[in-house]
Amino acid sequence: MNIDFNKNSDGLVPAIIQDARTRKVLMLGYMNEEAFLKTNRTKKVTFYSRTKKRLWTKGEESGNFLNLVDIKLDCDNDTLLIQVKPEGPVCHKGTDTCWAEENKVEYGFLSKLEGIIAQRQKLSETEPKLRKENESSYVVSLFDEGINKIAQKVGEEAVETVIEAKDNNDELFLNESADLLFHYLILLKAKGFELRDIVKVLEERH
Length: 206
Fold this sequence. Notes:
By secondary structure, the chain is of the alpha+beta class. It has helices at residues 33-42, 109-124, 138-145, 147-165, 170-190, 195-205; strands at residues 13-19, 25-31, 46-49, 54-57, 66-73, 80-86. The protein starts with 12 loop residues before the first strand and ends with a helix. Its main location: cytoplasm.
C-alpha cells in the first residue's frame, strides 16, 4: 500500500473510520506512518493525536477499542478508509458515532420504507373513529384486518411473482417482485421483526 504521507507538511493523512458491519462512518482521525504500522501490527486502530503530539490508540483509556478489519487507500493515495469492529461507543461523548447517530444497520430506501410501515402500524392501533381522513391507507387497512390477511397477501404476491418469472416480461416480473417484497416487509413488522433480523439469520448461516 503506497500511502503518500509526504503530501501534507505534517506527514499526516486522514483516516475515515467505518463500522465493517453497519457501514456507518464512526469518526475521523489522522495517521502518520508510525500510527499506520502500529495499527497493522496490533490490529487496534492507532492515530496520531494532533493535540497530544503523540501516537494514540483509540480505547487505550476507555477500553473502547477499534478492532481492525480492513484498510483501503483512495485514488490519490492520501486518505484511508478503515473498517473496524468497535468495542463500545466511539465518540468521547459516549455516543455510537461522532455524529451522534445510532450505529445500526440501514438498507437505504428499504429502511425508509420500513419506517413508513411502522408509522402505518401505529395508526392501525388508533381507534378508527379517531383517525383523520388522510390517515387511511392500504397498509393501515392490512394491519386492521390482521396477520391472516397480511400473510395471505404475501402468498398471493409470491404466486404472482413465480408466474411472471416463467414468462419473458421483465417489467411485470420486477413489479410483482416489488409487490412481494413490500408485503413481506409488512408481514415482518406485523410479527414484530425487521429486515435486519432476517439478515442476521443469513449471516449466522453463512
